[in-house]
Amino acid sequence: MKLSEVKESIGIKNPIKKDFTIHALTPLEHGGENDISYIDQPKYVSALADSKVGAVLVREEIAKQVPSHIQPLVVQNPHLAFALLSHHFAQSEFGEDSLKSSQEQRLRQSSQIHSSVQIMQGAYIGQNVSIGQGSVIMSGAVISDNVSIGENCKIYPNVVIYRQTQIADNVSIHANAVIGSDGFGYAHTELGEHIKIEHNGIVQVESNVEIGAGSTIDRAVFGKTIIKKGTKIDNLVQIGHNCIIGEHSLLVSQVGLAGSTTTGRNVVFGGQAGTGGHIHIGDFVQIAGRGAVGKNLPPNTKWGGHPLMELDAWMKFFVTLRRLVKKSERE
């Protein structure tokens, strides 16, 4: 698909100086000369200098700041144009071969599923799936096309693993967890309509991770959502698109992480703690239950409350507040 072919559908206003076949939609830092990215805010303009993308969707007032090696594509709303363009790259969960062939045929034809793997009755395995030695796929699990699962993994009943997910060795995923579903990403028209952003990235789960029942981990818009080695995730946890969870972290039940949250190693989230998007949490940080993280947090610190405070200050504040309430009740 060429850039000229999508010009009208995404509302490009200026002439296209150099037409090219679009390979992918990418972030500024990862793209090549046949890729497209977008900038919706002036604060990201500085990132263009080192970017190698072929073109960038921008508002008219930013177009003159785009360096000469990148082609500006002037649109009224870059986020909306990006969402519309993403529809041209939407991928199917299952290819035609998966839909036409039987489970028995796919397993017989596959050379990537080790002979020791146990696949229980009622599990569905897509096309081009690899599963390592000693792994178990339990009844009701659905594994989409092009998924890779390492050795000694346990995929419990009714787990759904979406396309292209990469799971390393010794991973346990408990019942009803969903790995690789689309993130919650929409652009908005002037009339308030919500236009879906197609998510074409993947989820990567490293070794020795455990994911609790009913938890969900969203695929990236582009690139990867990553759960690093040794992390343990409790039941009913939500991890948004493009999050990166550092090694040996602990996420207690009902934690919710907005898209592009990143953490260092050994971070602990208490139950029902949550983050806003695009926040980084340093190594060995602890966040008390129901803590609401709205800013970057430095390493080796403890936090709690809403609004978030350092844990000692929050506990003193809470005790003081209780004393004031009791005093007012006595008066």
How would you sum up this structure in a few lines?
The protein is 16% helix and 25% strand.
How does this model look, in words?
It is a single chain. The protein is α/β, with parallel strands linked by helices and about 325 residues long. The chain is about 15% helix and about 25% strand. It is built from six helices and 34 strands. It has helices at about 5-10, 60-65, 80-85, 95-100, 105-110, 310-330, and strands at about 25, 35-40, 55-60, 70-75, 120, 125, 130, 135, 140-145, 150, 155, 160, 165, 170-175, 180, 185-190, 195, 200-205, 210, 215-220, 225, 230-235, 240, 245, 250, 255, 260-265, 270, 275, 280, 285, 290-295, 300-305, 310. The radius of gyration is 23 Å and the shape is flat. The termini are far apart.
Largest β sheet strand count, sense and barrel closure: 11 strands, mixed
Would you tell me the overall average pLDDT?
94
- Any low-confidence stretches, pLDDT <50, length ≥5? none
Distance between the termini: 75 Å
Helical content (DSSP H or I, runs of 4+): 10-25%
Query: Rg, please?
Result: 23 Å
Let me know the number of strands: 34
Q: Helices and strands: which structural class?
A: alpha/beta
Main attributes of the structure:
alpha/beta, nine-stranded parallel β-sheet, 331 residues, eleven-stranded mixed β-sheet, 34 strands, 25% strand, 6 helices
Secondary-structure blueprint:
Elements: H1 3-10, E1 24-25, E2 35-38, E3 55-58, H2 60-63, E4 71-74, H3 78-86, H4 96-100, H5 103-109, E5 118-119, E6 124-125, E7 130-131, E8 136-137, E9 142-143, E10 148-149, E11 154-155, E12 160-161, E13 166-167, E14 172-173, E15 178-181, E16 186-188, E17 194-196, E18 202-205, E19 210-211, E20 216-218, E21 224-227, E22 232-233, E23 238-239, E24 244-245, E25 250-251, E26 256-257, E27 262-263, E28 268-269, E29 274-275, E30 280-281, E31 286-287, E32 292-293, E33 302-304, E34 309-310, H6 311-330
Parallel strand pairs: 1-2, 2-3, 3-4, 5-8, 6-9, 7-10, 8-11, 9-12, 10-13, 11-14, 12-15, 13-18, 14-19, 15-20, 18-21, 19-22, 20-23, 21-24, 22-25, 23-26, 25-28, 26-29, 27-30, 28-31, 29-32, 31-33
Antiparallel strand pairs: 16-17, 33-34
